[in-house]
């Protein structure tokens, strides 16, 4: 599999929807994750990321304009011990609670499916990062309808043990803009991870479509110590 440019993947897609990147810095010292949201409707664009303990949550920028919170207000990032959970919906809580009761990442998601927003049936994408005693691994999941048929849910989990420095994986909800929106296809994309947290954050944010981007979260975690740095960028200020 060829290593793709994350910058080009973003610049060449006006509407990947919501996306998760997980990987490792080129020096092998930091675990990396990024999560972004985009929107086409006023309701979807009326959001910001705010810090919430060790994680983040979405919040209405203008509460008066919030029409339906069901699929847009949630905690995309939560931390459970040495595990960092990143998702595009309220399945963050499902994974947190399942793993807190000794279930695996995959088992925790068995009770969930794609979002009930037909005809799009937006996939639920999720990631888990595990750092313990200087060792790092991660996994990603996608739950999606079977070619738009809501009677059938397809479940894929991808696990990455001992990641290669300077590489990561990128998964997003939609292949591109459309009506209905076409669900992501194939494995998470192998992408290069370059730069420090500020240059990486700037690259991702500047590469997202100007009209559709809403918010971005980036975290770099020191694999040796577990200490982390976070960046949040919101279009609404």
How would you describe the overall organization of this protein?
Helix content is 15%, strand content 41%. It is mainly beta and 237 residues long. The strands form 3 sheets. The protein has a 6-stranded antiparallel β-sheet, with helices on one face. A 5-stranded antiparallel β-sheet has the order 5-6-7-8-9, with helices on one face. Strands 3-4 form a two-stranded antiparallel sheet.
Descriptive tags:
237 residues, mainly beta, 13 strands
In short:
The protein has 237 residues and is mostly beta strands. It is built from 5 helices and 13 strands.
Shape category: globular
Low-confidence stretches: none
How many DSSP E strands? Answer: 13
Number of helices: 5
The percentage helix is 10-25%
Radius of gyration over all CA atoms, rounded: 16 Å
Terminal-residue CA separation: 40 Å
Oligomer: single chain
Mean pLDDT: 97
Task: Tell me about the largest β-sheet.
Answer: 6 strands, antiparallel
Classify the beta-strand content into a percent band.
35-45%
- Helix/strand/pairing category: mainly beta
- In N-to-C order, the SSE pattern is HEEHEEEEHHEEEEEHEE
Write the layout of secondary structure elements.
Layout: H1 6-11, E1 19-24, E2 30-38, H2 42-45, E3 47-52, E4 55-60, E5 77-80, E6 83-87, H3 91-100, H4 105-108, E7 124-132, E8 135-146, E9 149-161, E10 167-172, E11 189-192, H5 197-207, E12 213-222, E13 228-234
Antiparallel strand pairs: 1-2, 1-10, 2-12, 3-4, 5-6, 6-7, 7-8, 8-9, 10-11, 12-13
């Amino acid at each position: 599999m060829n290593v793709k440019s994350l910058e080009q993947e973003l610049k060449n897609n006006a509407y990947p929807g919501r996306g998760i990147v997980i990987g490792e810095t080129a020096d092998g010292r930091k675990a990396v994750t990024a999560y972004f949201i985009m929107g086409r409707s006023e309701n979807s664009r009326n959001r910001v990321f705010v810090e919430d303990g060790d994680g983040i949550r979405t919040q209405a920028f203008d509460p008066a304009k919030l029409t339906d919170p069901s699929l847009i207000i949630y905690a995309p990032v939560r931390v459970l011990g040495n595990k960092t959970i990143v998702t595009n919906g309220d399945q963050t809580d499902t994974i947190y609670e399942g793993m807190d009761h000794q279930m695996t990442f995959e088992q925790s998601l068995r009770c969930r499916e794609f979002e009930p927003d037909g005809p799009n049936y937006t996939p639920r994408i999720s990631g888990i990062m595990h750092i313990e005693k200087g060792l790092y691994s991660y996994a990603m999941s996608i739950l999606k309808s079977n070619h738009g048929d809501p009677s059938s849910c397809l479940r894929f989990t991808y696990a990455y043990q001992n990641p290669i420095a300077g590489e990561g994986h990128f998964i997003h909800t939609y292949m591109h803009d459309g009506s209905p929106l076409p669900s992501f296809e194939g494995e998470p994309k192998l992408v290069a991870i370059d730069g420090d947290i500020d240059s990486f954050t700037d690259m991702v944010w500047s590469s997202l479509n100007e009209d559709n981007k809403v918010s971005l979260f980036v975290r770099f975690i020191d694999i040796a110590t577990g200490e982390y740095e976070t960046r949040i960028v919101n279009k609404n200020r």
